[in-house]
Amino acid sequence: MRSPWLDIPLGDYEGHMLLPSVGQAEMLSDQLGRIVIELDPDSVAVLGCAGGNGFHRIPPDRRIVGVDINPHYIAAAAERYAAICPRLELHTADIGSEAPSIEPVSLVFAGLLFEYVPSQSALRFVKSICRDGGTLAAVLQLPLEGAGVVSRSPFKSLESLESVIHLVSPEELEAAAARAGFQLRSRDQVCLPSGKSFAIRTFRST
Ligand SMILES: C[S@@+](CC[C@H](N)C(=O)[O-])C[C@H]1O[C@@H](n2cnc3c(N)ncnc32)[C@H](O)[C@@H]1O
């Protein structure tokens, strides 16, 4: 099945995430920035990187790897960051399939990705690009009673996500991660003014 992400213009996606009623772009960027400050990794892979949200929170001298299924998103990330981040590597790839050959990194960040890629295949991809002892940080959307899984939006192209989004509970991710060779490191949660909450889990690759 063709991913609906291939048909969502980046402007629509970013416009949606920046809506004050959504506010998720800043949250994801903040979470990436927080963990980069905590771990000070020499290399970071952002899976489902879209147009590079949060890349500016990684020191530009670090190796930064961005992966996304949508080649237009990757092209936008390149245009925005290639001149600023000399060690930037960008890949158009389906994280649900085999990993391209990417030299492993110290930190893998997956913000709102497990909602779109089956955990087992996403974790296989993560395992192949995460160093032994490296960290996986995942941000998961939690269910909110009475609200749509995809927030209401004037950007109609986002509606196509409703048929494919699948919320993964933190417990499901923890169990799948343990099976894939990741040890739980930390649990956290953030709540946005919209009322939506997000779980943050970090794991060490063992
Ligand atoms: C909810 S967005 C999160 C984007 C980003 N982390 C941010 O901060 O805005 C999900 C991203 O994952 C990408 N994506 C969805 N399915 C994918 C797949 N199978 N392989 C690679 N990327 C995928 C989408 O194109 C989109 O950019």
Automatic annotation (TrEMBL):
- GO terms for molecular function, please? methyltransferase activity
Q: Name one GO biological process term.
A: methylation
Q: Which SUPFAM superfamilies match?
A: S-adenosyl-L-methionine-dependent methyltransferases
InterPro entries the UniProt entry points to: Methyltransf_12 (IPR013217), SAM-dependent_MTases_sf (IPR029063)
Q: Which Pfam families match?
A: Methyltransf_12
Coiled-coil intervals: none
- Keywords carried by this UniProt record: Methyltransferase, Transferase
Does Disulfide bond show up as a keyword for this record?
no
* Residue span, Methyltransferase type domain: 47-136
Name of the protein this chain belongs to: Methyltransferase domain-containing protein
Naturally occurring in which organism (per UniProt): Eiseniibacteriota bacterium
